[in-house]
Each structure stands twice: as C-alpha cells, then as structure tokens.
Amino acid sequence: MKRRSDRIEFLHSDGSTHEGLLDLSATGMALFQKQSRVPGSTLTIQLENLTLTALVIYSQEKVGGYKIGLQFSGLKHAEQATLEGLVEKFSRGTTLHMALDAHRS
Questions:
Q1: CA–CA distance, 50 with 53 (Å, rounded to integer)
Q2: Which numeric CATH code is attached to 19-103?
Q3: DSSP secondary-structure letter at 63?
Q4: Is the dihedral of CA 29, 30, 35, 36 positive or negative?
Q5: So what's the pLDDT on residue 101?
Q6: Structure confidence at residue 82 (pLDDT)
Q7: How far apart are CA 68 and CA 1, in angstroms?
Q8: Half-sphere exposure of 28 (CA within 13 A, CB side)
Q9: Dihedral sign, CA of 32, 35, 41, 44?
Q10: Radius of gyration of the chain (CA)
Q11: The pTM is what?
C-alpha cells in the first residue's frame, strides 16, 4: 500500500527502547509502547496543543514492547494544518510532547 504522506522517523541512536513517538506523518504515526493495543480500537492522542483521534492499524511485538501503527481520523482543515506544522517541527528534531487515552471500540 502506498503512503498518503511522507513520514518522519525518530531513531534512538543508542538502540534503547523508550516509550514514545517513532514516526509521524500528516495521516498517522507509530509509537513504541510497553503495552499492546488491539487493532481496530481507537486512541485519543494529545500531541502538543492538538487532540487527535486515531485508529490502531497494527500492534507488532518488538524487544521490550510493541510498535503501534495509528491512522488519524476526523481531522478538520485547521487541525490538519496544525498537524502538518508539528510534522515539520518533528522533522527538524524538535521533541513533541504526547499523551494517550485508550477507548473501547
């Protein structure tokens, strides 16, 4: 499947497995988490000053945790523009603050 937008990856240079953001694009993100997430479930993500709803696409077991693939949904035009600005900041190495809330689906 072809990506709908470019993604920017964050790589831990020391090979460590910290929970957090692995990659980010205008359409989704990947996280490293200690806990698995159920594909098809939704999460609410607070990324800086932006609240996003995301569908869990996959949860892949890795050493020390899980890589979780998410697809954003329901973005309004202004939210999309804000997200694209955050992707640009992330691409320049700016650390983005993030919090998660899980929902049942």
A1: 10
A2: 2.40.10.220
A3: T
A4: positive
A5: 82
A6: 96
A7: 17
A8: 15
A9: negative
A10: 13
A11: 0.80
For 85, the 3-state DSSP assignment is helix
Q: Is the dihedral of CA 42, 31, 58, 37 positive or negative?
A: negative
CA 15/CA 77 separation, integer angstroms: 37
**Which residue did the predictor score with more confidence, 36 or 101?**
36
The model's pLDDT over 4-17, given as tens digits with 9 standing for 90+, comes to 555 444 444 344 45
* CA end-to-end distance (rounded Å), the chain: 25
Q: Taking the domains of the chain in order of start, what are their residue ranges?
A: 19-103
And the tokens for 41?
A: 């479930």
What's the pLDDT at 10?
Answer: 47
Look over the chain and give the mean of its residue pLDDT values, rounded to a whole number. Answer: 84
List, in order, residues 6 or more apart from 102 with CB less than 8 Å away: 37, 41, 43
- H or E element in which residue 47 lies: strand 42-47
